[in-house]
Amino acid sequence: MTAINNTGQITVIVGPMYSGKTTELLTYVEIYKLGNKPYKIFKPVIDDRYAVKEIRSHSGMCEKAIPLDHSQKALEYVSNEKAIFFDEVQFFDEGLSDVAKTLRKKGKDIICAGLDMSFKENPFMTTVKLMGLADKVIKKKAVCHECGEYKGVITYKLSGNESEIDVGGMEKYIAVCMDCYEKFRSKTD
Known about the structure:
The chain is an alpha/beta fold. The chain has a domain at 10-141: Rossmann fold (3-Layer(aba) Sandwich), CATH 3.40.50.300. The chain contains 5 helices and 10 strands. Strand 6, helix 3 and strand 7 (109-114) form a beta-alpha-beta unit.
């Protein structure tokens, strides 16, 4: 007799800004939507770049989302959903990994997207913990804003403070390859 598998899956989509992480996440949303499978989308309350209650890709795709100030609160909203989506995971607290484990044990598929590294080349620990739990990790690249090659693996901060948690878009950040990143960094050192 075969055992029925009721455990969910964790998928983590990472990369620099402008690499299509949210677009990929929204593609997964579309799959669940087409399959008539219930889902919920969560985002950190700190990310209000486009709208408070939606996630939006840089290309304009969007879906309604529930803003959270703490990852544990997601459990209050989840009931019969098959999939749970988290966007901009680097802005969530590290407890998101425990939330993901709890949801996976309940048979939910968890799909997360976010930056893996800050503009200072430091890993975001919330993302790192999720990657460690993941059944699948998708590492995205971007077109380098400086040289135009499809080798952008890190975000470079053009302006603002030195804080690694600093919400912004093209007015503050670009995606670059490591060669261009080192070139920019050498100019500021």
